[in-house]
Design a protein that fits this description.
This protein is α/β, with parallel strands linked by helices and about 250 residues long. The chain contains six helices and 13 strands.
């Protein structure tokens, strides 16, 4: 029997997590280890300044007072007797595309699994609340089954973004695009007239490339991107060596 570890960044009570469990249950044993609260936009944070408490809520269901990355680390190190056949993070409420990937706790949980050679998927859904996660049920199950059978390239996770539509136009394999936010920092006043700052919202500046996750989701396609852990700009190595002459400094 296959073992599938699932987690998220929206917290243990997220309807997306429940929907993910129901979708993957026919494929094997499901083990849930998820944060005890919302950890959205926490990126790849690892808690190292305090002990973590793991609570068993039910058979194969645990919650942790830590980050999504903590959940994966504790799962692989202490909860599971062996590495799972698959790790799936999600279903996130809202897309994780473009530059948002670097902030995403959902994607970071899959990154942590990939670091330890566990085939890993991050699943997110666009749209307004409440989201109908059942629209993604059969697609997620099919993708998970394909990954269990065929695996993924080394050091690579699958980042899936599903549009909020009853009938997606299809599936596109995409590259990470660009989506940065203009006027994302809001200035607000408290009742005593003191200035505070709220990060979030603003106007997205979108990548127009038709091979990107940003474009695909905007056109109501399911976007599936292979995200690689090697952040090195390999073309930049020769630039640093030859144009900047950095190896000649000392």
């Amino acid at each position: 029997m296959h073992t599938i570890l699932i987690t998220n960044d929206d917290g243990i009570h997220s309807p997306g997590l429940i929907a993910l469990k129901e979708s993957l249950a026919p494929l094997g044993k499901i083990v849930i280890v998820a944060p005890d609260r919302d950890n959205s936009a926490i990126a790849h944070a690892l808690t190292m300044n305090r002990p973590l408490k793991l609570i068993k809520l039910d058979e194969d269901v645990y919650t942790l007072d830590g980050t999504p990355t903590d959940c994966v680390s504790i799962s692989l190190g202490k909860v599971l007797e062996r590495a799972p056949d698959l790790l799936v993070s999600g279903i996130n409420s809202g897309p994780n595309i473009g530059d948002d990937i670097t902030y995403s706790g959902t994607v970071s949980a899959a990154i942590e699994g990939t670091m330890y050679a566990v085939p890993s998927m991050a699943v997110s859904m666009a749209g307004d609340q409440p989201l109908d996660y059942s629209k993604a049920d059969s697609l997620i199950r099919e993708l998970a089954q394909q990954v269990i059978i065929h695996g993924l390239p080394a050091n690579t996770l699958m980042n899936i973004n599903i549009p909020a539509t009853d009938k997606p136009r299809g599936v596109r394999v995409t590259r990470q695009g660009r989506r940065i936010w203009k006027q994302a920092v809001q200035e607000v006043m408290d009742p005593r007239g003191r200035v505070h700052y709220w990060i979030g919202g603003g106007t997205p500046l979108l990548d127009s490339g038709k091979d990107t996750d940003v474009w695909a989701l905007g056109e109501n396609y399911v976007s599936i991107s292979p995200i690689h852990l090697d952040l090195t700009n390999h073309e930049g190595i020769s630039y640093f060596k030859e144009d900047l002459g950095l190896e000649k400094l000392l």
